[in-house]
Design brief:
alpha+beta, 3-stranded antiparallel sheet, 3 strands, 13% strand
Length: 180
């Protein structure tokens, strides 16, 4: 017969199994949280990169057509009377209007009701920033200097960034450069 001192328990108890399950669950939730945060940050970085590309695009257009003044206010709709200069010959003034319309449509091509601006449909351009707003203007007192600002929503609230309340999240990129 076996003595009591030599008998020991083999295997895992239910309590040990539950503790292991809790620890493993917390770890999996932590990894899932990191994944969600990583996806949000990647999305934000992509929007910022897009904003930089759009700002550089309009500044390149200004450099090419520097005899014209480029001006568009935050939240302004794209210029309606733009001639499609990619398919017809345009004057310098028409090219400036076309450039502004194309650029504004690239930032935001829909109104708050989700309807596409007619000029954006005509130019076949779709906006790439959520609820974006754009601005370009010549800096007063500095010849050939332009300031470009692009804003976009980071939370998807149906409010245009150009006319938002200060308490709501809106990202912004501003570039100032001298065109030579």
């Amino acid at each position: 017969m076996l003595s009591r001192s030599k008998v020991f328990s083999l295997g895992v108890t239910l309590v040990e199994l539950l503790v292991t399950l809790v620890i493993l669950s917390v770890g999996v939730l932590g990894v899932a949280g990191l994944q969600v945060t990583s996806m949000q940050l990647t999305r934000d970085v992509n929007f910022r990169l897009t904003a930089v590309q759009l700002a550089n695009d309009v500044l390149d257009r200004v450099r090419i057509n520097r005899n014209q003044t480029y001006a568009l206010g935050v939240g302004d709709v794209p210029p309606v009377g733009a001639v499609n200069c990619s398919s017809t010959t345009c004057t310098s003034a028409q090219l400036a209007t076309y450039d502004l319309a194309r650029w504004a449509c690239s930032v935001r091509s829909q109104n708050l009701a989700g309807e596409t601006f007619p000029i954006c449909t005509t130019l076949s351009v779709a906006g790439v920033l959520p609820l974006g707003a754009s601005r370009i203007e010549a800096v007063s007192g500095a010849a050939g200097t332009y300031e470009v600002e692009i804003r976009w929503s980071i939370d998807g609230i149906q409010t245009l960034c150009g006319s938002r309340d200060a308490g709501q999240p809106c990202q912004s990129l501003t570039l100032r450069t001298t065109v030579q």
